[in-house]
Amino acid sequence: MAESRFKIFSDPVHGFISVPKNLILDLIQTPQVQRLRRIRQLGVGHLVFPGAEHTRFGHALGAMALMHDALASLSEKGTEITPDEYTAALAAALLHDIGHGPFSHTLEHELIEGFAHEAMSRVFLTRLNERFHGALDLAIAIFDDAYPRPFFHQLVSSQLDMDRLDYLRRDSFFTGVVEGRVGVDRIIKTLRVHPLDGGPDAEIVIESKGIYAAENFILARRLMYWQVYLHKTVLAGDQLLRAILRRVRQRLQADGLDLGGSEALLFFLRRTVRHDQIDRPDVVQAFAALDDTDILFSLKQWMRSADPILADLSRRFIERDFFRVTFLPEPPSAAMLDAWRGRIADWLVRQGLASPSQAAADAAYYLILDRSRHAAYERAEAGIRVLGRDGVVRELSESTDTSAIATQTHSVIKPYVCYPRDAALADVLPTC
Amino acid sequence: MAESRFKIFSDPVHGFISVPKNLILDLIQTPQVQRLRRIRQLGVGHLVFPGAEHTRFGHALGAMALMHDALASLSEKGTEITPDEYTAALAAALLHDIGHGPFSHTLEHELIEGFAHEAMSRVFLTRLNERFHGALDLAIAIFDDAYPRPFFHQLVSSQLDMDRLDYLRRDSFFTGVVEGRVGVDRIIKTLRVHPLDGGPDAEIVIESKGIYAAENFILARRLMYWQVYLHKTVLAGDQLLRAILRRVRQRLQADGLDLGGSEALLFFLRRTVRHDQIDRPDVVQAFAALDDTDILFSLKQWMRSADPILADLSRRFIERDFFRVTFLPEPPSAAMLDAWRGRIADWLVRQGLASPSQAAADAAYYLILDRSRHAAYERAEAGIRVLGRDGVVRELSESTDTSAIATQTHSVIKPYVCYPRDAALADVLPTC
Amino acid sequence: MAESRFKIFSDPVHGFISVPKNLILDLIQTPQVQRLRRIRQLGVGHLVFPGAEHTRFGHALGAMALMHDALASLSEKGTEITPDEYTAALAAALLHDIGHGPFSHTLEHELIEGFAHEAMSRVFLTRLNERFHGALDLAIAIFDDAYPRPFFHQLVSSQLDMDRLDYLRRDSFFTGVVEGRVGVDRIIKTLRVHPLDGGPDAEIVIESKGIYAAENFILARRLMYWQVYLHKTVLAGDQLLRAILRRVRQRLQADGLDLGGSEALLFFLRRTVRHDQIDRPDVVQAFAALDDTDILFSLKQWMRSADPILADLSRRFIERDFFRVTFLPEPPSAAMLDAWRGRIADWLVRQGLASPSQAAADAAYYLILDRSRHAAYERAEAGIRVLGRDGVVRELSESTDTSAIATQTHSVIKPYVCYPRDAALADVLPTC
Amino acid sequence: MAESRFKIFSDPVHGFISVPKNLILDLIQTPQVQRLRRIRQLGVGHLVFPGAEHTRFGHALGAMALMHDALASLSEKGTEITPDEYTAALAAALLHDIGHGPFSHTLEHELIEGFAHEAMSRVFLTRLNERFHGALDLAIAIFDDAYPRPFFHQLVSSQLDMDRLDYLRRDSFFTGVVEGRVGVDRIIKTLRVHPLDGGPDAEIVIESKGIYAAENFILARRLMYWQVYLHKTVLAGDQLLRAILRRVRQRLQADGLDLGGSEALLFFLRRTVRHDQIDRPDVVQAFAALDDTDILFSLKQWMRSADPILADLSRRFIERDFFRVTFLPEPPSAAMLDAWRGRIADWLVRQGLASPSQAAADAAYYLILDRSRHAAYERAEAGIRVLGRDGVVRELSESTDTSAIATQTHSVIKPYVCYPRDAALADVLPTC
Questions:
Q1: D199 in the same domain as D135
Q2: For B161, which DSSP code?
Q3: Same domain, D357 and D315
Q4: Confidence band for C175, pLDDT divided at 50, 70 and 90
Q5: pLDDT for B259-303, tens place per residue?
Q6: Do A12 and D175 count as a contact with CB atoms less than 8 A apart?
Q7: Which chain B residues touch D5 with a CB distance below 8 Å?
Q8: Is D222 in the same domain as D281?
Q9: Which residues does chain D have within 8 Å of residue A319's beta carbon, measured at their own beta carbons?
């Protein structure tokens, strides 16, 4: 009896996903891809949306599945795609996020200075390519935008790539935020490869019948930002987790104390690793060993730490006793900030968490000023291109009937402050 | 064994709908409500979206079910609602559209001059109230906005009423246009009754946590307009159907010919009925006898009419051989329109559909100039009101973070022209 | 700008359906296929399940779409399919139900004696083939099971064909009966073409990993029968409609009265048409002109008939004032039936619907004895075949772990009786 | 501005879940309930179904939400429920699974001899009741079936309880196995409290219109067992994880080696804890500290263990390189088992995983014989009770039309064996 040429995954978002039993399945079975099963897609988002436990692994499969659908749609419209290109594009979609660290975006900058997960993905791609004897050469060229047919790169990385299509659809599904639902099928069915300025190059465009689906995609993404990714309680969880790592780093580097915790995690906290060191073998090895488990297990140990601040912060995360977040109408003055810090310092002393002499310094872990920022659609970068009924390609926000988009091209920035609920700070804060 | 106090309907959109076995169920069983089973919700929309065969009956049930949910949500928040108010509000939601005629909005103005279906609903409400010996007094007061607690009227008729919530969700479901999906549950859970200007009156507001859901509702509505309600082929079908009725009216009133067709329909075509005559007994009786069946059956008879124009137009509708629609950059000049009419007249003669002497006049049925118009959100009318975290109520487009809405408050108007595909007109039309 | 080679339909059940712009789209645009837009898939089912207004047209598109998916899945597993076979199989799936009459199964036997809709589909196929100059030769061979690769016919007509997969999924969707939901994707992904007894012939089999999906399909079908297709109120509506046509036929043939109504419908009621006459030109023409509109419009006319029985029955249907259905533990004896008929006759007289001399005869329209019958799975016919992990093909009910199926292979038959709710019959009926 | 009386959770399965801001929300915020966020609902199921990362926390919320729906449905039918009973029933549903350990069912018996998670839930309930000063007295009485209205206990624990309804719906949702979807709404709408044998006691029954939904529930549950819970690869993952813990226990108790790993986990592996010791303070404390994180983090440490067997087994789990599972037609004879063990022992030596003298003993970790067992419906236990139209209550499998159920009342038992894919054992195994 003939073996099937596909392994089938049951995905609640896209239904059955067929994985060819070739390089693609081999890649899925590597420890690097399996590690993505232990990295939650939404960082601390599951602590706000209880269904959103989904991982980078499901997203990687989903992006690959959508790449298959997109290539099939383009083929039907006459764009020729060779078997090698097909496999390389699937591999690039599957591996595009392989460089993510624990809790996805939350901890990036606490572990490695100036970190960009794409750069780490590139490092992992090189390692995998060595292991597979160059089988990923073409996938890497697509990832690097060094392949002569640039539309493949656009499908992997652009404002309307398979990554975004999958994560919006997936995050909407698992959070239950139905307003973020994107018409992925419709968008993919209206993709087309179009000659660039009449020359030999070609780009991905949306046919004009897909214009509302594309607009809806921009607006759904914006909605997911404000309702999910930048949800106040998500920000609170993010900041708490980052404060904990900062505390550990400070104690380790100052006192050299043994606080316990995951060795792979401590590797990044005992020293400062910069973004230009990410291909050092010891860094790669430690990073590849890290996942959400290391963070959570370490927190559970640190809950019992002798350092009262570390113990309190860790307990707060494990028991989901987060700080409060208040958005501010504008960034506070230095004087306001000083006054707030003073209140927090007093509170720390009253709580027995810090001595009077330490409280001012330790207040940095309990009063966090930051700002959330989102631009739904960055026209400047490399806009979504629409093929009009007149045969002319225009940028989406310049196409007819998309007035709602034009307003989405600037960033929205909101300063906010994070602090313990019972620290009596709320009364003195200005409100929006 | 105790009878259940509810009859349960299985609705694919909202799941089970429980109908109290009291006045509400009695109303559902009247011929007036049963008639809604024979009126398609989307007029000719099912000829473009093959799943969209759903009727006004399902929508009426759905609006009633959402009214139940909204009242339950308001009750949980402390707004007291008496059993009589509950029943009256359900009745008002159930009956709000009872005055719709065949093919919903498409034919309104072809049957009665200056028609508004709300006015006809009001006429039907009075008749039903007589039959039920005044049991609808309170429902009618709510419908008329004459009830002292105006928030009930707002739930029946406003920019965020149960009617709109149901029809958007329902039309999105049956058309398969997932981008139009509205988070109905979320909106209903964030409704609240709030004192108006600190006085004794109260209005419906959205809590601030529902602001994105409300914004999404506005944008989804806009998207449904452009993708569904004003879809080019829907416009083409609408115009064709209206042209047929105009043709019949013209022949009946000019020649008094017997063209066949439904008597109830012919009632409105043999004479001119004005909007201020809708409560005349003969008008009400004829209107109450009308549904989609009368139109379709008449068209099937008229396909075999001796009048070649009527036969051709009717056949086109039944066989879905619609006119082409072309949007114009601006309304055409009189000279342009004359030139186009000339081409159509020539074509009519060549097709044997009109004699040279008649062709100019008959061209009016084959060259139709109109414009589509939509304002997603009419702030002026009576905007959606949002209760801020600061306790202040603001209009939605003035609330934080809703820049996308501010752009939706003006109307978008698009002129277009309708004509036979093979009439060689496309070449001379300006394009957008 | 290149025209797309596909027309896309938005289907709420299967999402986007791509229709090749060749013979398939031409077929869809014929009056014969467009007529299916006016024939409800579930007969009177929409009067019980208010969302179930869907038509044979959507089902025809859906069966065609699943045929595409099935052929794509078989191709991926190495079964070669030529472009001609592909188009023919799509055409056969699209047209398999084209011979259905108004209200689908309900009226079949009232219009034509011994009618089978497949035979009428075959007549229509021949006409279309003439019009398309033989382009349907191969589709007809597949339909007739005369094509040398019999698995194509199995995909069109067998216990696990595209017809059943689509209608179960579709009817479950539109009725809201989620328990009837079938894992169509999974079943299609596990189809395979397997050599029959090692010879050159081949059959469709299910891979063993699809065995639970196939079992679920059988059980879901059974559930849809008892909950939807044979729902008591559906039976009541069916019987009422059939009684009306019998009454009209009786009056027309006995008295030759002019009762009004659709001419195409009256064609079948003025005379007796037998199943071996269905290819007579006048029969084909009248049948092709018939759809649900003719029935409903005629009922609306007959509501005002001078025949009180016809008027009453028609009004009952239009106002959904159906008879009551009571299932019986066993078929009643002749004596019981006589007694019941006597009660009904008395009631008719009391109601002023029949004179004492006529009441006994007219009781036949108000007391209807029938039985519902369903066999979920007919092993004998041509069972579902499963390819075991050992390479041996077995019939589904003989495969491992499908004990639930073995019990489904016999027919379940339930006698029932239909009568007016207020006719005081319920008290004397035996109960199950 | 009035605070809302409910906190709303966005659940992708049931939509919005409203949690009263009273005892129920306080319970959710305890560390004991928050711990459920770190325990996957399906043990190793997420390694087979990539979307199935959902946790016991979401299930606890869901069961509580369904309890609310069930009580609301029963209230509408006239069963009186006091506010205290309402809160207690919600608490009981929320906490019913609070005693689950890491990986849910997988590890139960490896940690505590004769463990039953219900007993541990009871221990936790007592502790929480102390903390809440007796506020859980009534919830505990319901949990213990010691409350005079036994139907509350039935809603918490029976063959058709809120636990089962939620987990089937939830597991079907997150695995994407649509065939397992249960019509939860319909079942809940057809529940009713009925006097038991005419006496003062009352039981939960299903109204006869819910009979197909109940039957579908049984069959869906059976399907989820064979397709998900007892999926071959799930069994393989379960057995691997259990073998690892056995290995650690053996090494710790034999050699007292320091293997690293979570202290809370090691507590249970250094000693033997019996089910009658689960309320010992040290046991409760260690158990309450345990979650999936402890297991995964320990495995990641053990991958680098000096014990080659432990390192190999741990790596296999982390990299998802599971054993193969083969179902056997019958339990093997002792001689067969010996022969298979010999092959495995040889393979261990060849792989360098065991010395020749140790290989026979160590083979126990690489050749695992077990059996899967499932009874879809246990009539004997306490069947589902159906209220017939005749007012008589019957057990489901004795009700009309449920022949498919009668076959589901016996257990299906399948022996199987687990072993490394490359150990050349497959060839000598008998096949089903």
A1: yes
A2: -
A3: yes
A4: very high
A5: 889 999 999 999 999 999 999 999 999 999 999 999 999 999 999
A6: yes
A7: 76-78
A8: no
A9: 29, 31, 34
Domain stop point among D185, D206, D227: D227
Is C160 part of any domain?
Answer: yes
From first to last of the 432 residues of chain D, give the pLDDT tens digit. Answer: 456 688 999 999 999 899 999 999 999 999 999 999 999 999 999 999 999 999 999 999 999 999 999 999 999 888 999 999 999 999 999 999 999 999 988 888 899 999 999 999 999 999 999 999 999 999 999 999 999 999 999 999 998 899 999 999 999 999 999 888 888 988 998 999 998 776 677 899 999 888 888 888 988 898 899 899 999 999 999 999 999 999 999 999 988 778 889 999 999 999 999 999 999 999 999 999 999 999 999 999 999 999 999 999 999 999 999 999 999 999 999 999 999 999 999 999 999 999 999 999 999 999 999 998 876 666 555 688 889 878 888 888 777 565 566 666 667 888 999 999 988 888 888 876
Whether residue D329 lies inside any domain: the answer is: no
Residues D220 and D251 in one domain: no
Can you give the CATH number for the domain in which D343 is found? 1.20.1250.30
- CA-CA distance, A363 to A343, in Å (whole number)? 9
Chain C closest-CA separation from residue D227 CA (Å): 8
Pairs of residues, one from chain A and one from chain D, whose beta carbons lie less than 8 Å apart: 103
Q: Does the distance separating the beta carbons of B38 and C46 come in below 8 Å?
A: no
Please tell me which of the candidates D183, D226, D400 has its beta carbon nearest to residue C401: D226
Q: Do D54 and D108 belong to one domain?
A: yes
The string of pLDDT tens digits covering residues B357-377 is 999 999 999 999 999 887 666
Give the ipTM of the model, two decimals please.
Answer: 0.94
Q: Which two tokens stand for residue D46?
A: 């997420």
Q: Which of C4, C186, C391 sits opposite A16 (nearest CB)?
A: C186
DSSP string, B350-393: HTTSS-HHHHHHHGGGT-EEEEEEE-S--HHHH--EEE-TTS-E
**A277 pLDDT higher than 90:** yes
Residue with tokens 């393989």: D236
A406·B408 Cβ contact <8 A: no
User: Of D163, D193, D227, which marks where a domain is finished?
Assistant: D227
Residue A355 within a domain: no
What residue in A sits closest to C10 (Cα-Cα)? Answer: A186
List of chain A residues whose C-beta atoms are within 8 Å of the C-beta of residue C4: 77, 207
Asked if residue D348 belongs to a domain, the reply is yes
CATH code for the domain of C135: 1.10.3210.10
Type of residue at C38: R
Tokens of B28: 């559902």
Instruction: Please tell me whether residues D185 and D268 are part of one structural domain.
Output: no
Determine what percent of chain A is predicted with pLDDT higher than 90: 72
Provide the domain count of chain B. Answer: 1
Q: Are residues D148 and D123 in the same domain?
A: yes
Q: Which two tokens stand for residue C349?
A: 């007289």
Verify whether the Cβ–Cβ distance D404 to C406 is below 8 Å.
no
Range of A189's domain?
6-227
Q: Which residues, at least 6 apart from A103, have a Cβ–Cβ distance to it below 8 Å?
A: A39, A40, A43, A44, A241, A292, A295
Chain C interface disruption, residue of D216, D226, D327, most C CBs within 10 A? D216
pLDDT tens by residue, B78-90: 899 999 999 999 9
Token couple for B409? 């408050």
Are both D48 and D186 inside the same structural domain?
yes
